[in-house]
Design a protein that fits this description.
Layout: H1 23-35, E1 38-42, H2 49-60, E2 68-72, H3 82-90, H4 100-108, E3 114-118, H5 124-137, E4 142-147, E5 156-160, H6 173-176, H7 180-191, H8 203-212, H9 217-224, H10 232-248, H11 255-269, H12 273-281, H13 291-298, H14 308-317, E6 322-324, E7 329-331, H15 334-346, H16 350-373, H17 380-392, H18 394-407, H19 410-419, H20 421-426, H21 430-441, H22 450-466, H23 470-487, H24 490-506, H25 510-527, H26 530-546, H27 550-567, H28 570-586, H29 590-607, H30 610-626, H31 630-647, H32 651-666, H33 670-687, H34 698-708, H35 710-721, H36 725-734, H37 749-752, H38 755-765, H39 770-777, H40 781-795, H41 800-809
Parallel strand pairs: 1-4, 1-5, 2-3, 3-4
Antiparallel strand pairs: 6-7
Helix pairs in contact: 1-2, 7-9, 8-10, 9-11, 10-11, 12-14, 13-16, 16-17, 16-18, 16-19, 18-19, 19-21, 19-22, 21-22, 22-23, 22-24, 23-24, 24-25, 24-26, 25-26, 26-27, 26-28, 27-28, 28-29, 28-30, 29-30, 30-31, 30-32, 31-32, 32-33, 32-36, 33-35, 33-36, 34-35, 38-40, 38-41, 39-40
Length: 814
């Protein structure tokens, strides 16, 4: 099995047309990125901030070994999704209920990337807080920001993006043609099919137009789009007319902002009535949109659905709307969208269009979502295409969900959120999904929507289960089950029973889990849904494994795989192989575990499901280690580590350390085994992430104490717990011992002592004896004495007095 993952070093888009001018500026800015940690390109809309940033980023890709990454924030309307957007760009995945920002910081710490945050002005406070946290925690990180206003945090260098140079009043034709603004205007005019060139007859008109437009790139491009039908003089006259109107109306915007506004107003005036209607209605979309969605949302009074395509094509030709051939999606430039939104508000259509977007997306998401997990007769590529369609419309879905919460529209909001369940579960956006369900279920109108509320609670429980949040999963599953039994929907009841059974299994009520699984299986067979049937069989496979029923467990699991495959759900097949590998490992059937884990890894690679691939490789390495294939085990473990680090994941790495400890113990090398176990446990404590493993360190520690003595083992454990993740992995995978003193526990109490040991330090400082400590904490005096010995060993002290002094110095007593 050959497992390869391509790690890209940037996600920068191909530029749609030729970049013109600013060569000196770009050279200076590229140099500044190397000198300062936060460079903000600021200025009014239309000055070309984004294009400049992309040029800088492209040139600097070779300078950043950990990549150059663009986060486009214009379509993001909620500050609480900022971190999600950036982690998605970087490929960082959520890990349990651990705060995503902590995972992001851990991922970036020690790396040297350039992160480009484009269009921050509408989220400037959130961007400023995030930038300050990242720059404080990640010393090699560089940030390049575009925003109409600076972030105003320490260390920021603001560079005001100037307009392009414009011709002087008396320059000759050949001199005019060499000026940057003229070059851009001519290039875009030719792209529009006008064949315009500078001549002695039109040089002054072109120069006058570029001067009137203040050299603003967006204004020049909008003007150039009209040159096939109008001369530069005619365009200049029309723009100047618009300028006088704006000035007469008492506009107080800065001059260059008025220039862009005048150009947009002029472009809008030239649109046909139906083009004006569609242009303003398109402002309701905060991200890319499809033709179908534009037809369903924007058609209506003054614009028939049958005419939308032709009118939309006209707006593309006039450079007011952009079309991406690859995705077959349209979008508005942010400056044009904001202008169109003003027109929409003036027409009194904003609320109506937002309602239509919400209902249109709810219908679309409902059908796409059900196709992913409920509709029979589809192939996996067809189901996956529905997921990608949902992903492409996520920006608009977020806007629509925000509107649903804001306006109390629970019914379409819940339908939309339930349609997005497969995306949030399949692509790891667990926290975001849970927040939407919680916000929508809290609306008063949701109380009367029994079916939809039950489905939303079910999906909330499912996402909580994936995050290992047992309490939230149990509460939502119980409420969903109560509502669902009252509605009489056998199909959704079966699904709810599966999730409830999974929860019961995690809390140890295996009998109730089996009962839920059997009832779910009967209902799934009755309604004929393969995905729920397979999920119920997999649940019952886990129940049988818990009872040690090897044949029953493997039979049920194989049946689940077969049903998932027949239903056309490759994701289900992959996850079933993973779970069956775990069950077989738990039952001691290493050959079967290996077979299923290898199959899981191959399928996960095929699907580019990196989290599942990393997990399967880690488990496969553990199985190979127990089968005595040390080299093959290390190879799988090393690949697991590479993948996990590319996603900012720690759980698989903790499992790798445990496996490396098992490998060392199998080779009778006690010191590395103890140290690696200690490193794994220290990571668990630090991150608060429990790791599932059938191995435990107690037998190893007992054997090591018998052979090496209690003091030596405690020293190994202390030194292992003090290793960094990088040191522990090098130590386990390559046998590299940390430099002398490198893995000495740091001085901070949080990383030196366990929570229990910190409690005991406080009691030592109060002068309590071992017996008194035991009475205070309800432990035996012998256990208290062992804790005190561990504390002395970790801190390198010989007396309680030294411990008390250390505690006072490091703030442990507060």
């Amino acid at each position: 099995m050959r497992i390869m993952v391509t790690l890209l070093r940037h996600n920068l888009p191909a530029e749609p047309d030729r970049f013109i001018g600013r060569e000196r500026d770009l050279e200076e800015l590229c140099g500044l990125v190397g000198e300062v940690r936060l460079l903000t390109l600021s200025g009014v809309g239309g000055t070309g901030k984004t294009r400049c940033a992309l040029q800088i980023a492209t040139r600097l890709v070779p300078s950043f070994p950990d990549g150059v990454w663009l986060a486009e924030l214009s379509r993001l309307t909620r500050a609480d999704l900022l971190v999600h957007e950036i982690t998605k760009v970087l490929g960082v995945h959520e890990e349990g209920v651990r705060p995503l920002l902590d995972t992001l910081v851990d991922f970036l710490r020690g790396k040297k990337p350039l992160l480009v945050l484009d269009n921050c002005e509408h989220l400037v406070e959130a961007c400023a807080e995030l930038a300050e946290r990242l720059l404080t925690s990640c010393e090699d990180l560089r940030l390049l920001v575009t925003s109409r206003e600076p972030l105003k945090i320490p260390g920021e260098l603001v560079w005001r993006v100037p307009p392009l140079a414009v011709p002087g009043p008396a320059e000759a034709a050949e001199e005019v043609e060499r000026v940057e603004s003229v070059q851009l205007f001519l290039d875009r005019a030719r792209a529009a099919g006008s064949g315009l060139a500078v001549t002695g007859a039109n040089a002054r008109d072109i120069a006058r137009l570029c001067q009137a437009l203040d050299g603003l790139p967006l204004a020049l491009e909008l003007a150039a789009a009209r040159t096939a039908a109008m001369s530069p003089r005619q365009i200049s006259d029309r723009v100047n007319d618009r300028f006088r109107l704006l000035t007469a109306s008492g506009r107080t915007a800065p001059a260059r902002q008025r220039t862009l506004l005048a150009t947009l107003e002029w472009s809008h005036d030239l649109l046909a009535p139906q083009e004006q209607v569609l242009f303003r209605r398109l402002a309701v979309f905060s991200g890319p949109f499809t033709l179908d969605l534009a037809e369903s949302v924007c058609a209506g009074r003054s614009l028939a659905a049958a005419h939308v395509l032709d009118v939309l094509s006209g707006l593309v030709d006039k450079s007011l709307v952009l079309f991406d051939q690859g995705s077959s999606c349209y979008r508005l430039l942010e400056s044009a969208r904001q202008f169109a939104a003003g027109k929409l508000e003036s027409a009194g259509e904003t609320r109506h269009l937002r309602d239509r977007l919400l209902h249109g997306l709810a219908d679309l998401a409902h059908h796409h979502g059900r196709d992913v997990w409920a509709t029979p007769g589809l192939t996996w590529p067809e189901r996956y295409a529905r997921l990608l369609a949902l992903q492409g419309l996520l920006g608009n879905a977020r806007e629509a969900l925000s509107w649903a919460v804001e306006s109390g529209l629970a019914e379409p909001g819940l339908r939309l959120a339930c349609g997005y369940m497969p995306l949030w579960a399949g692509f790891g956006e667990l926290t975001e999904g849970r927040r939407w369900y919680e916000s929508l279920l809290a609306l008063p109108a949701a109380r009367t929507l029994g079916d939809l509320s039950a489905e939303a609670l079910l999906h909330h429980a499912n996402l909580a289960y994936e995050q290992q949040d047992a309490a939230a999963c149990g509460e939502s599953a119980a409420r969903a089950l109560e509502l669902r039994r009252a509605t009489g929907d056998d199909f959704m009841l079966a699904f709810t029973l599966v999730i409830a059974g999974m929860y019961e299994g995690t809390k140890g009520d295996v009998a109730l889990a089996a009962e839920r699984g059997e009832e779910a299986l009967k209902l799934a067979l009755l309604v004929g849904n393969g995905l729920i049937e397979a999920s119920a069989r997999l649940l019952l496979s886990g129940v049988a494994a818990f009872h040690g029923q090897r044949r029953e467990s493997l039979t049920r699991g194989e049946e689940a795989i077969e049903v998932y495959a027949r239903f056309g759900h490759l994701w289900g097949v992959t996850r079933a192989h993973l779970e069956l590998g775990r069950f077989a490992d738990f039952l001691g059937d290493l050959d079967t575990a290996r077979r299923h884990l290898e199959e899981c890894a191959e399928l996960a690679e095929e699907m580019a499901a990196k989290p599942v691939l990393a997990t399967s490789l880690g488990l496969l390495g553990a199985v190979l280690a127990r089968q005595g294939e040390a080299e093959r085990a290390r190879e799988r473990l090393a690949r697991c580590v590479t993948l996990s680090r590319s996603m900012g994941q720690h759980l698989p790495i903790i499992s790798v350390l445990v496996t490396l400890a098992v490998l060392a113990e199998g080779q009778h090398d006690l010191e590395p085994a103890v140290r690696l176990w200690a490193a794994a446990r220290a990571m668990e404590d630090r991150l608060g992430l429990p790791v599932w493993t059938s191995a435990t360190p107690e037998p190893l520690l007992a054997r090591a104490r018998a052979e090496a003595g209690e003091g030596q083992v405690q020293l190994w454990w202390t030194m292992g717990g003090g290793m960094t993740e990088e040191e522990a992995l090098r130590y386990g995978l390559a046998g590299e011992r940390p430099a002398q003193g490198a893995s000495r526990p740091p001085a901070g109490p949080a990383s030196v002592l366990t929570p229990r040991e910190r409690e005991i330090v406080v009691l030592i400082s109060r002068g309590l004896s071992n017996r008194a400590i035991g009475e205070e904490l309800f432990i035996s005096p012998a256990t208290a004495a062992r804790h005190v010995a561990n504390i002395l060993l970790k801190l390198g002290f010989g007396s309680r007095t030294q411990v008390a002094a250390w505690a006072a110095e490091h703030g442990v007593l507060h």
